[in-house]
Amino acid sequence: MLSITTDYLAYPGRDKLKFHYVHAADDSMRIDPSISNIIDTYILTRSYDKLFRQWLEGIIATKPLPKSSDQLYIAYGSELNARKSLTDEVVYHPAKYRILFGDKADPRLQARFIIVKNTDLVLNDNDVKSRIINRINQFFALENWDFGETFYFSELSAYVVSELAPDVTTFLIIPTQADQVYGSLHEITCEVNEIFVSGATVDNLAIVDAVTAERIKANGKIITSTGANSTGIQSSIL
Q: CA Rg, the chain, in Å?
């Protein structure tokens, strides 16, 4: 049942007032509009991959450089920013190749390979060398590797010998630097923004009839891993 009350007062109001509301969170609540999730992206562009491989093959004379972080942001930022959350921050890291074995590799990563053929078969040395280089390139195919991985020569050796069996019985790696010995390049690591690529050519292969201590420079000092400091990322101007 409704009842009418008259114990209230009414006054003419005002308009065109500016209303300011200040919000304060409770002690148990936190308002954090800042970026809280950093996403590191490592990008290997197709153009850099194509030019780098052409440089390895001697097609072009100038070694290409990866794009800078700013160039990657300009190229991919607008598309990725449309998909990220407000609290996400995408950091663009240019990826680069680390060359192994060949003359264009870092001196401490240069090597030659010793091969022992099956003596029961009549084989052409140049054909064996060519097939080994093809298998090494297949082993280091881009789809087989990720950034920052570790190279183990035992895996490469097992792959090459299995692919060329029964023609090849032994496949060893020997460093070219005088201060390195057999085993120095059996394990190689790279930086998180790097990915391995082979620079080996047929000139880095040697076919022998037997493996001796002199040929592998075995002097009692066995090293199982080596590494090199990253020199940073440089970039050319578009």
A: 31
- The answer to whether the beta carbons of residues 95 and 43 sit under 8 Å apart is yes
Give the model confidence (pLDDT) of 184-226 as tens digits: 899 999 999 999 999 999 999 998 888 777 767 644 444 444 4
Three-state DSSP class for residue 24: coil
Phi-psi sector, 209: left (phi>0), alpha (psi -120 to 50), beta: alpha
Q: Which amino acid is at 88?
A: D
Question: End-to-end CA distance of the chain, in Å?
Answer: 82
Q: Judge whether 149 and 155 are in contact, CB under 8 Å.
A: no
Task: Write down the pTM of the prediction.
Answer: 0.71
Strand runs (DSSP E) across the chain, as ranges?
37-43, 88-94, 96-100, 111-117, 150-152, 168-175, 187-189, 194-198, 205-208
The H-assigned helical ranges of 34-173 are: 46-56, 69-81, 125-139, 153-164
